[in-house]
Write a structure and sequence with these properties.
The chain is an alpha/beta fold. The chain contains ten helices and 13 strands. It has a single domain, classed as TIM Barrel (Alpha-Beta Barrel). Bound molecules: zinc ion. Zinc ion binds at residues 1-2, 18, 94, 96, 126, 187, 298.
Length: 352
């Protein structure tokens, strides 16, 4: 999912969270000039892990957050405790580290260090608009444990279109996708929950353009599909899916999982698989071939039980992974090894 962009043009009006967060506080853009914020403490500032009070962000510095998520109305916004480390290196294949969350923001460096400490050796940082896609490419360029996905989110496509900027935005994505550590187009797709009928043509046009970019650059594609299963599947069939197509935060049922796996798509499970009301996701998991399963946080959203509502982060991947393993009746490290192999097959190596 992708929150509201913090574009200077002010053209973006709508929030565009993805699956599962309708009831949570919506993210807000980082506003204000550099003068309102304290000194930069980004990942390039040194090797000391940095925690910092919220709001000490210089939005003009690419090492800083692109936006922050509101803490209004959330009961507990502290980061959950670190889980037991996994014995096998694993990866978070979809996260949004450009979003500041929690009572104390975590720098990119701190996020990656906390992840490494529990066996999460890398992340795929996903974009949803021009700013966050540029940030994702920057993070991948400068951090060995980050690969990037870049895209205009389906809920942002109509916003850009209304501003007459969709083609220019997609051209930026095309440019970023040529970078060697940009390994996916994402997140793109269709969202009939957040976007009304007026916005659907722009969303469709954007989705098809993104599919073409994934094929042109020979990289993976991460799909955001909210209340649009049939249309997404139909579009992929009609125009031809990229060789490596991932349903980020898979939200279908067992029938859809079977169909997607039959077509060779990957299903990425997020923390919402642990939610009580998500039996459809557990049914889907049960029928998904092991070589098609991926795991993600979609951080800072979709924090797995028992930490629902608190900030999510890549270091919480072991919580979701252990839950998946228990559902499948597998040893957690055995599943971690399988998911790691799947992740590297889709996105390539993290080492240059
Ligand atoms: Zn996302």
């Amino acid at each position: 999912m992708t929150p509201e962009p913090a574009r200077a043009s002010g053209a973006a009006a709508g929030n565009s969270p993805g699956p599962g967060i309708a009831a949570q506080a919506v993210p807000e853009p980082v506003e204000g000039s550099a003068s309102e914020h304290g000194p930069a403490t980004g990942p390039t500032a040194g090797s000391t892990p940095v925690e910092r009070p919220r709001g000490t962000v210089d939005a003009a510095d690419p090492s800083q957050y692109v936006r922050e998520r509101s803490v209004d109305g959330r009961r507990d916004v502290s980061y959950p405790p670190a889980p037991e480390p996994l014995g096998i290196p694993v990866y978070d294949n979809h996260t949004h580290l450009e979003i500041e969350d929690g009572d104390t923001g975590l720098s990119l460096h701190e996020q990656l260090e906390r992840a490494l400490a529990v066996g999460v050796h890398g992340v795929v940082q996903a974009g949803g608009d021009v700013d966050s896609s540029r940030w994702s490419a920057w993070a991948a360029r400068t951090q060995a444990r980050v690969l990037a996905a870049v895209a205009i989110h389906p809920n942002e496509a109509p916003v850009y279109e209304r501003a007459g900027e969709l083609d220019a935005a997609i051209a930026v994505i095309d440019e970023l996708a040529a970078e060697p550590r940009v390994r996916a187009i994402g997140e793109t797709g269709l969202d009939f929950f957040r976007t009304d009928a007026d916005g659907i043509p722009a969303q469709m046009r954007s989705f098809e353009a993104h599919i073409a970019l994934a094929k042109k650059h020979g990289i993976a594609m991460q799909i955001h599909d909210r209340d649009a299963h049939d249309a997404v599947l139909e579009t992929l069939e009609r125009v031809g899916a990229p060789e490596k197509t991932v349903f980020h935060c898979f939200s279908g049922d067992a029938d859809m999982a079977r169909l997607a796996a039959d077509r060779g798509y990957y299903l990425s499970f997020a923390g919402n698989v642990t939610f009580k009301n998500a039996q459809n996701l557990r049914d889907a998991l049960a029928v998904t071939p092991l070589d098609r399963i991926l795991v993600e946080t979609d951080a800072p959203f979709l924090t797995p039980a028992p930490y629902r509502g608190r900030p999510n982060a890549p270091y919480l991947i072991p919580v979701t992974l252990r839950f998946l393993a228990a559902e499948l009746g597998m040893d957690a490290d055995e599943l971690a090894a399988q998911i790691a192999a799947n992740t590297l097959r889709v996105y390539g190596t993290f080492e240059d």
